[in-house]
TrEMBL record:
InterPro entries: CbiX-like, Sirohydro_Cobaltochel/CbiX. It comes from Polynucleobacter wuianus. One of its GO terms (molecular function) is metal ion binding. SUPFAM superfamilies: Chelatase. This is Cobalamin biosynthesis protein CbiX. The lineage of its organism: Bacteria, Pseudomonadati, Pseudomonadota, Betaproteobacteria, Burkholderiales.
Length: 120
């Protein structure tokens, strides 16, 4: 089974995660056949390891991690690979892959431009 993890930074303010929760709900509504979990780098739960464990317990064998970040800053270049490698080692029966940061995708950037233009 394939699954997806939407991976964000995390914050002290619990309200910060509300868009992530909505994003996961939108995923579930549009792709009910592919399980999704949220995961956070720091300050929020679940961690990447916890999200992989949850999806693995549901039978996922192929998980794609989508970093919901604007760009490849230090966290994605330095911290994220360490976490991902630790999960690959711990969950060797699961194939873990990743995408670039969502903010590096031209379609995402265009959606932001369109959003801004609609406000004019």
């Amino acid at each position: 089974m394939k699954a997806i993890i939407l991976f964000g930074h995390g914050a002290r303010d619990a309200r910060w995660r509300e868009p992530f929760d909505r994003l996961a709900e939108l995923w579930r509504a549009q792709h009910a056949d592919v399980p999704v979990e949220l995961a956070f780098l720091e300050m929020m739960q679940p961690s990447l390891e916890e999200a992989v464990a949850t999806l693995g317990a549901k039978g996922a064998k192929d998980i794609t991690v989508v970093p919901v970040f604007f760009g490849q800053g230090g966290h994605l270049r330095n911290d994220f690979p360490v976490l991902l490698d630790a999960c690959r080692e711990k969950f060797s029966q699961i194939t873990l892959s990743t995408t670039p940061a969502v903010g590096e995708n031209v379609a995402v950037l265009q959606a932001i431009i369109d959003f801004g233009a609609s406000a004019l």
